[in-house]
Predict the 3D structure of the following.
Amino acid sequence: MSGPPTPPSSCCSRRAFLKGALAFPAAATLPGLFARAEWAAGGGDEVLVLVRLDGGNDGLNTVVPYADDLYHRARPGIGVKNPVELSDSIGLHPSLAALRGAWDEGALAIVQGVGYRDSSRSHFTSTDIWHTAFTTTPERWSGWAGRALDRMDEGEVPALQLDPAPLSLALTGERVVVPAVADAEGFRVRGNKELLEALVARPREGVLEHVRRAAETAYRTAERLEKALGSGDAAGYPDTDLARRLWQVARLVEGGLPARVYAVRLSGFDTHSRQANAHAVLLKTLGDALAAFQADLKAKGLDRRVLLMTYSEFGRRVEENRSLGTDHGTAAPLFVMGGRVKGGLKGAHPSLADLDQGDLKHHTDFRQVYATVLERWLNADARAVLGAAYAPLPFV
Amino acid sequence: MKPFDGPFDFDAAAHLWRRAGFGAPEARIAETARLGAAGAAKAIVRGPAKDEAAAEMDSIYAQVVGTGKVDAIRAYFLQRMVRCEHQLREKLALFWHGHFATSVLKVNEPSWMARQYRIFLERGLGAFADLLGAVTRDPAMIRWLDNETNSKGHPNENYARELFELFTLGEGNYAESDIKEAARAFTGWHILADRYHFSARLHDDGEKEVLGVRGAWNGDDVCRIALSQPACGRFLARKLLQFFVVPEPSAADVEAFGEVLRSRGYRIGECLEVLFASALFHGSRGALVKSPIEFVVTAVRVSGGRLDAAAAQGDLRAMGQDLLAPPNVKGWPGHLAWINTATWLSRVDAGRRLRFPAKGDGVVAALCGQPPGPEDRARLAGAGNDFAHALLSLPEAHLS
């Protein structure tokens, strides 16, 4: 089941985005300081962690239909030969072996065949579509999580991106200001703090106000992060940027930072050539970091408050290319992990015998995943956020 | 385009220097202000008759590239931006680097990246067709978009796709079938011993239909066909306007500047001279957010100080603009995307390292895209040793 018809995309107007980004109600410049208890009363303290696999993850070599001859025929050079078997037909890439623990505990769901109609092959357009949750140019350019945050009580740090890139469109709301930091550790104001704060105290207009608000948010976020982060023990986490950031998420949740959504990113999935090694390294980075995060949350007694989901702008073509890589494709699986997740495979693996011009056909719209997370996890009005009703999925 | 007919004063000249270059010291701006809008646009496009700094930088180029170290090469191009007198050449090279965004992280050969950046310096002001031809044969580009593996019978579509989507036409102005056909035209455009190499054996010389025209096209033909599309003028006009003028140019302005580009054979310098003397350009003061490189290099040039290239590279990375390593083939998103909580603290920290020998209103006007308010001017005046840090922590200093 999926939502309303989705005509070919022509996302997205930057003009619309600018309008949205610059339309700050004056009141929003002085957000209230919400205590923990108020947050809980306002809609729960469940935390969502978004892990973006940037570049278009090869879903077929991530969650492998290893018993299907068509798979091995399409991928003579890069096919996965020794998967971690999850069922008599589906297995994980061996680099994801660390996720076996979460799988066995029932804390890992794999939603298969996720995509949308007339999938864009452009990284940028498709990323925008995943982030806005609109397949056509929306009236306002904001993200699905950002719009959910717009509807919640605004805390000092309503969400947090741990990634040096510009704030993800997914977290961009029409009202909410979400801080983005490269690293929660060392995010401090240096120099004459009083003077710096005074220089950004006076409200401005337009672009200047956008800059001023970022500055003000930065000074405030620095203070909050320092308080919430604590020290903690990295034991169990591998030495990767992704793992370090997830470790920081665990500490910030434990330290009481009132963020409801965290976003991190792993890049490099655009594997057009010689993909076997590169993809194995990426999946190992992912699997090991996720497993360490889940174990840490469990040890801290927080695993039932945190839900993590991965996503990528598209999967890749079924047939490997001449360069032992794969080109841009369509449907792919995604992972959902957490102590309250209903584990297991959700939906069938898309058929390799029934392709659309060499690409997998999706059977689950990505907004069904969002609707599930919004309604059953963040306690948000999915219909209002997504602009249409999408049937939720049984993973939480 | 309507020419600018307002007063061409110090502030207008400072605007021109910030946009067409990386700013200038107060005295230099005052000289430019005497030239009038058209004279100043002409002078900044043509550059000085003699550019001693550029000659000196040219003389050490081979030695820098010979180190094979990407940080040395980055430092070299950053120093050029600070020192070279023909500022537009340096600024435009940065524009083309963002347009043909190629990253050393995949290319893995710093010297190839240097050679590509040199193409932007040498051909950036000339005809776009020549630039595109050189980039299409550039080894760094060939590796970046996997054209090495694009061979007859097994086409790799990556270059053809980005050529249309990001380099010439923009989405919506071609079909998937055009990409498939164009990819065949680039088959056999490979690399041999660090250089472009055409492999006739691996080239598909059959007939292709690209953007509605049939023929046994090769890569040059495809570039020519793309350039002949009206969409190309609009696409390039839009990107140049977004970099040099306003974040969101109107359809009418895109059309008008697109017409300037088409009617002048896409000779970029000539077209920019028209743009820099236009009412549109001079009405756009303070409309853009400075990129990290603009922010740092402009601050150094206005202060009259020197660039600590090693420190600057760390700062720039933290601000999200690592030269020779754009985030993806679409380049840096720019404008508002430069500013978030993370990059703000990095920008402000970078400001702590700079010293401003001169502290007057001229320095503030040379640097800031919009004038600071009176209370903030008073704070600057009383900031003492914190002057540079305070100035560079003002939101106004981050606009161009």
